[in-house]
Amino acid sequence: MFKMGLGYDIHPLVEGRRFILGGVEVPFPKGPAGHSDGDALVHAIIDSLLGALGEGDIGRLYPDTDPRFKDVPSLDLLRDVMARLRKAGGRIVNLDTVIVAEEPKMAPHSEEMKASLGPLLGLEEKSLNIKAKTNEELGPVGEGRAVACWAVALVEF
Ligand code: MG
Fold first, then answer.
1. I need a labelling partner for 43 at 20 to 30 A (CA). Which of 70, 81, 151, 157 fits?
2. What value does the mean pLDDT take over residues 30-54?
3. Is the peptide bond before 63 cis (omega within 30 degrees of 0)?
4. CA–centroid distance, residue 63 to ligand 1 (Å)
5. Is 119 exposed, middle or buried (0-12, 13-18, 19+ CB in 10 A)?
6. Ligand 1 centre from 58 Cα, in Å?
7. Edge-to-edge strand order for the sheet containing 146-156?
8. With 0-12 CB in 10 A as exposed, 13-18 as middle and 19+ as buried, what is 114?
9. What is the mean pLDDT of the chain?
10. Residue 15 Cα, ligand 1 centroid: separation in angstroms?
11. Ligand 1 centroid, distance to 14 Cα (angstroms)
12. Ligand 1 centroid distance, CA of 60 (Å)
């Protein structure tokens, strides 16, 4: 059986935070605010996997009111979700993602993000896709005040 899942996340960008995206630190004076490290790409991927699993969403499993998740690396949460997925007999077939940010340019970092995420997700080169685009200067993302990410996963059970 195949099941798909969709994930979306957005974080405001603020001064004095490291810009962690896809498990990679992107050099930039601002970074995503958040209870965890604010990795919007990993959060979107987590929600896509939880969608395929039918297990709600990231906020339900790892609430930001819980001090255990304060400043937690999002990759740790993703590892936990992958354990849930394997326990349910699932295997990711492919994962497609979109990063929307006005700056910095994300495309130069996509290979490093794939190298960071691929082994964790059990995905080879062609089965993990990371697209990067701007929001054409429109809205909060386009004004450089936020980063948004989308992910869609296909999981085989
Ligand atoms: Mg988030």
1. 157
2. 95
3. no
4. 11
5. exposed
6. 8
7. 30-32, 2-15, 146-156, 91-100, 128-133
8. buried
9. 96
10. 17
11. 14
12. 12
CA of 13 relative to ligand 1 center, distance in Å: 12
Which CATH number fits the domain that encloses residue 31? 3.30.1330.50
Q: How many domains does the chain have?
A: 1
The confidence score (pLDDT) of residue 21 equals 97
User: Distance, CA 149 to ligand 1 centroid (Å)?
Assistant: 9
| Ligand 1 centre distance from Cα of residue 10 (Å) | 6
pTM: 0.97
Question: From ligand 1's centre to the CA of 40, what distance in Å?
Answer: 5
Q: Tens digit of pLDDT for each residue in 85-134?
A: 999 999 999 999 999 999 999 999 999 999 999 999 999 999 999 999 99
Output the CA 126–ligand 1 centroid distance in Å. 26
SS3 149: strand
**Segments forming the whole domain that contains residue 53:** 2-156
